[in-house]
Design goal:
It is built from 15 helices and 15 strands. By secondary structure, the protein is α/β, with parallel strands linked by helices. The strands form four sheets. The chain has a seven-stranded mixed beta sheet, with helices on both faces. Helix 7 links the parallel strand 3 and strand 4 (133-137). Helix 6 (94-106) packs parallel to helix 7 (121-128), helix 6 packs across helix 11 and helix 13 (276-302) crosses helix 15. The longest helix is centred in the last third of the chain and has 28 residues, at 367-394. The chain starts with 6 loop residues before the first helix and ends with a helix. It binds pyridoxal-5'-phosphate. The site of pyridoxal-5'-phosphate has 14 residues, from helix 6.
């Protein structure tokens, strides 16, 4: 018996990369592929104590159905941090759910949606289910190029999806002047900005650049997450939206899951309400900065000439560019055979993928394994470059 499935579900495909990367669960594989935060950064004891207090103080409310918008004290906490009215805040089941709700509320089949080049794969997947027409906005090593936004490129766009802080996959941070130019251009062209910011707190020096939201609260939907500052298993994120859109997002959320788990929201609030983030986040920054330096150092010693990479100022990723003509997807299988894994860059592009790119995640791998993995990768790339050279000369 075969069952009829929806046109939408028919578009869902398993990625070839996911299949190859399945083997990275083997302990001998040094994986720079996963995008997981470091378990060492989870405030386990503080959360355990907070959970006990939630059970002691108000157990039945913590186990009851609750408002779709989310737990009011948590919403107030977030509103204060972003200096916006609490009525604009919706708590979501991870910021990944916010991406899905935004897509549901804003995308019709064929709607133009502007995305960075490259962009977060999970957002491209969430949006794709609603059949947009992706329009890639050019980016350079500093991130999205605001001057590229013209009336022609942005015509009819439902929104522009932007990742200004330590972008997944490139680790890039959009400079202040570009943020200002982007917000001004979006206003001028009437384009709604969707700002995804799970890594904003992870600047290695602790400095902050203003969010797009702070520059134009009525023209920006902002997404935040507790995944990288507390723990991703909580599945706790939020979306800040102009009132009319907030209302629609709440309706979509109600249909999806009524509300984000009450218990989780209360435990998170109980964990952070007395200032834990102010002491905890600096420890994550220090850890990730150290890990990043270990990888940058290893790359500079082991990568062959012609391979380039960026030096992130925060976050969890380094973006690598191989010499033109090399395909990181084709090389991945050989890398995995030698027990090293990364994510090829191609799936992060909505159109015209650059096959010679790849993403390295460095926060969960111990320093000596980073050294070992980068050594193996360097040898492999040296061989690949040598093999490709005669072909390039012949072409
Ligand atoms: C850019 C970006 N947005 C959103 C998410 C989803 O995060 P969560 O649903 O855990 O809040 C991730 C996860 O890695 C991400 O990298």
């Amino acid at each position: 018996m075969t069952w009829a499935i929806s046109r939408r579900a028919q578009q869902l495909t398993s990625s070839a990369i996911r299949e190859i990367l399945k083997v990275t669960e083997r302990p001998e594989v040094i994986s720079f592929a996963g995008g997981l935060p470091s378990p060492a950064s989870f405030p386990v004891a503080a959360m355990e104590a907070a959970a006990a207090r939630v059970f002691a103080n108000d157990p039945t409310a913590a186990l009851q159905y609750a408002a779709t918008e989310g737990f009011l004290p948590l919403r107030e906490f977030i509103a204060k941090r972003h200096n916006v009215e609490v009525d604009r805040i919706l708590i979501t089941t991870g910021s990944q759910q916010a991406l899905d709700l935004i897509a549901k509320v804003l995308i019709d089949p064929g709607s133009p949606v502007l995305v960075e080049t490259p962009s977060y794969l999970g957002a491209l997947q969430a949006f794709s289910l609603f059949e947009p027409e992706f329009v890639s906005v050019p980016s350079d090593e500093k991130g999205l190029v605001p001057e590229a936004l013209t009336p022609e490129l942005t015509a009819g766009a439902r929104f522009l999806y932007a990742l200004p802080n330590f972008q997944n996959p490139t680790g890039r941070r959009l400079p202040l002047e570009r943020r200002q130019a982007l917000v001004a251009k979006a206003k001028e062209l009437g384009v709604l900005l969707v700002e995804d910011d799970p890594y904003g707190e992870l600047s290695y020096t602790g400095d902050h650049l203003p969010t797009l939201l702070s520059m134009n609260p009525d023209g920006v939907i902002y997404m935040g997450s507790f995944s990288k500052v507390l723990a991703p298993g909580l599945r706790l994120g939020y979306v800040v939206a102009p009132p009319a859109l907030h209302f629609k997002l709440c309706q979509a959320k109600q249909a999806a899951d009524l509300h984000t788990p009450t218990f989780t929201q209360r435990v998170a609030y109980e964990t952070i309400k007395d200032g834990l983030l102010d002491t905890h986040i600096p420890t994550i920054r220090a850890l990730y900065s150290k890990q990043c330096n270990v990888m940058l150092d290893a790359l500079s010693r082991h990568m062959p000439a012609g391979v380039k990479w960026n030096k992130p100022e925060g976050g969890m990723f380094i973006w690598v560019e191989l010499p033109e003509g090399l395909d990181s997807m084709a090389i991945l299988e050989q890398a995995v055979a030698r027990n090293v894994a990364y994510v090829p860059g191609a799936p992060f592009y909505a159109s015209n993928p650059r096959l010679n790119t790849l993403r390295l995640a460095f926060v969960t791998v111990p320093a000596e394994r980073i050294e070992q993995g980068v050594t193996i990768l360097g040898d492999l790339l040296r061989e690949a470059i040598a093999k490709a050279a005669p072909a390039a000369r012949a072409a």
